[in-house]
């Protein structure tokens, strides 16, 4: 029976090697590309991320959290994106060896309908393949070639019998590998899959905004950073054109580089962050993408701050129990003066109130988890095919 790898050989004029297939997320010990944070976002030393410019130390939000504990929660929607990537073979094209990467991409948005009831509001669940641009034997019509290749893959008998479809065949450029010698082709293939996942996240945010589901009383909490890197492909590749969709969206990062936290002078704030008291937040700082490199993205900034939601004496490291909070600055007033400090306090208090119940023992990141996000993540991962099932498609 003809399989996907045989089809790829014929379509690309290449030769597959029947290499060992594996889940790359388990095998690659070194992180591929850090999408959570990037040093290409710089602190604006002469700007504050909030209007209270007198705030120099941390601020206790425990009373605010207690005050709001019986009020309607600020967050009604919770967004999480995930991807699982695989090395499915090596292919020789023009006497060069490239990996064939594939992935399962999932992005889910859950809605809190009552304190005890969550329901899926939006779901993107896609299968993709990532190939080098050299896979196209033609000199033109690259997009058409990969679209036609996707249709051929979906007509493979094994794929049809499984009752599934691949949503896209992605491409990665080997030129990036030549520019950055230490970057492996596997990482470039994974980066293309990651970009597709991020585009799906933006698509769901756009859908919720178009339906008028987000407003000042109904925020979306996104798992992970809002500091998106620019992408060369995708329907929503330029964030500057869709940033208004993020007016009522907050990003919360469980994992972050503490060295990325800076004080007002631009020096590392990691030591002070490690000593952050329980339910205290840092002042909000203003960040902007590196305009020298990404000037074409337009002018948009972020307000960023940190809060401790778990007591450090119950965690495994000084940074466990701390989350990073981000909001894209939308209005002219916000870009000039930062967020209203009262709003920063309300957002932080609501995030503190989302910390319980805990998933202790179920996830090693329990100290940094917000439970509604944890539920969304569990739902999303339940939609994945098993690794064995997915790899056997090839």
Describe this structure as you would to a colleague:
By secondary structure, this protein is of the alpha+beta class. The chain contains 13 helices and 14 strands. The radius of gyration is 22 Å and the shape is elongated. The termini are close together.
CA-based shape: elongated
Write down the secondary-structure element order: HEEHEEHEEEHHEHHEEHEEHEEHHHH
Strand count, sense and barrel status of the largest sheet are: 12 strands, mixed
If you compute it from the alpha carbons, what radius of gyration comes out, rounded to the nearest whole angstrom?
22 Å
Q: What structural category arises from helix and sheet content?
A: alpha+beta
Tell me the number of helical segments per DSSP (H or I, 4 or more residues long). Answer: 13
Fraction in helix: 25-40%
Low-confidence regions: 27-36
Number of strands: 14
- Classify the beta-strand content into a percent band: 25-35%
Please indicate the count of domains. Answer: 2
Mean pLDDT: 85
Quote the distance from N terminus to C terminus: 11 Å
